[in-house]
Design a protein that fits this description.
Blueprint (H helix, E strand, L loop, with lengths): L1 E2 L11 E2 L2 H13 L3 H4 L2 E3 L5 E3 L1 H9 L4 E2 L4 E3 L5 H10 L6 E2 L1 H7 L2 H6 L16 H12 L3 E3 L6 E3 L1
Parallel strand pairs: 3-6
Antiparallel strand pairs: 1-5, 2-7, 3-4, 8-9
Helix pairs in contact: 1-3
Length: 157
């Protein structure tokens, strides 16, 4: 078992969640905690949550003091750069962004390379070239489709 107090949220997590969405997450975990085996908290060697900050907070709000070992996965093999990328990539399709953190901690080029929709940033024209603006519009008009090789589930990004 992992003591929840041994873990800590990422103070620089660029994603936020509204209270209505958070309530749904809490309800989901309360009714189906086993989902955390399939979508564990991802932590660094020092216990900082880099994936699943809102799930962590939901567990706290539900009164969990300890959680199953298989609800936590350590990202000990990732470099600092890979951790930064993971934080963005893991959150692309959920929640809302804290743009102050996004602007201060990540480069626009990196965000774009990792699949972040830069049109969400409402950037001044001076920050995007005409070509980048056009590429951004094209990227948002088409959905990327994925299929799980194990179970066949299909979803769009």
């Amino acid at each position: 078992m992992v003591q929840l107090k041994e873990l800590r949220t990422n103070d620089r997590n660029p994603r936020i969640i509204k209270s209505e969405q958070f309530a749904k997450l809490v309800k989901s975990i309360k009714e189906f905690p086993e989902m955390l085996k399939l979508r564990p908290l991802i932590v660094t060697d020092n216990g900082e949550v880099i994936g699943g900050n809102m799930r962590y907070k939901a567990l706290e709000s539900l009164g969990y003091e300890e959680i199953s070992d298989d609800w936590v996965m350590c990202a000990s093999d990732l470099t600092e750069e890979q951790i930064k990328r993971f934080i963005i990539s893991d959150n692309i399709i959920m929640g809302e962004w804290d743009f102050d953190i996004v602007f201060s901690d990540w480069e626009i080029g990196e965000l774009k390379d990792w699949g972040f929709d830069v049109s969400l940033l409402d950037l001044p024209d001076t920050m995007l070239s005409d070509n980048e603006e056009e590429e951004s519009k094209e990227e948002t008009s088409t959905l990327k489709k994925y299929k799980c090789p194990k179970c066949g589930f299909e979803f769009s990004e």
